[in-house]
Amino acid sequence: MMAVIQWVLGIFALWVLGILTIQISRDIGESLPLIGRWLIRRSVRGLPEPAQTEIRDRWLGIATTLPGGLPKVGWGLACNWLAPRFGNPADPATAARWLQTIFFIAYLQMVARDFVRLRFASPRELRSRWLLLKMIADQALTVGDPNAPQPLLEAARKLKVLKDTKQRLSALQDVLRSRSGDHPEG
C-alpha cells in the first residue's frame, strides 16, 4: 500500500514539475524580446550622441524581423559587442586574419567537395589552390593602397612572361626546323 502511495505522489510531483517548467519557460520566452530590446538600447549608449537614435532604430528594426525571442537576445548581445567597435577603423592585421580565415574555410569546402566526389588532388595541387586563395585574400586587403604588393598582378605578369617565352621558343624551334630542312646532313 505504501509503495502505491509513493508511486502516486511521484507521478503527481512529476506532473506539477512539468506544469511549472512549462509556465516558467513561457514566462522566460515572453521576456526574451524585452531583454533583446534592452540589450540594444544599452549598447548604443556609448556611441556618439547624433548617431544613437538612428543606429538604435536600425538595430531595433533588425531585431523585429528576427523570429522568436532567443535570436533577439543574440542580436542584442551582438550589438553590445559591435557598439564599441562601431565607427573605429578595423585593425589591418585583424582584418587580414578574418579574411584569410574565411578563405581557408572556402578552401576546406572545396577540398571536402572534391573528397565527397572521390576526386583526390595531389599535395602540390592542394598547396597551389591554397596559395591562390591566399593571394586573393591578400589582394583584397590591399585595395586602395598603390604601394602595397599586388600578388595577383605579379602572378599575371609572370604568366605573361612565361607565355611570351613559350611563343619565342616555339618560333625559334620553327626556325631551327626550317634551317635543318634546308641543309640536310650527310
Helix and strand layout, with pairings?
Blueprint (H helix, E strand, L loop, with lengths): L1 H42 L5 H17 L4 H13 L9 H25 L6 H19 L9 H32 L4
Helix pairs in contact: 1-2, 1-3, 2-3, 4-5
Write out key terms for the chains shown.
single chain, 186 residues, mainly alpha, 6 helices, elongated
In short:
The protein is mainly α.
Explain this structure.
The protein has 186 residues and is mostly helical. It has a domain of 88 residues. It contains 6 helices and no strands. Helix 2 runs antiparallel to helix 3 and helix 4 packs antiparallel against helix 5. The longest helix is centred in the first third of the chain and has 42 residues. The protein starts with a helix and ends with a helix. 8% of the residues are buried. The mean pLDDT is 77.
Through-space gap between termini: 122 Å
Order of helices and strands: HHHHHH
Give helix % range: over 70%
Sheet with the most strands?
A: none
Q: Rg to the nearest angstrom?
A: 33 Å
Shape: elongated
Helix and strand composition category: mainly alpha
| Assembly state | single chain
- Report the average pLDDT across residues: 77
Low-confidence stretches: none
Counted by DSSP, the helix tally is: 6
Total count of strands: 0
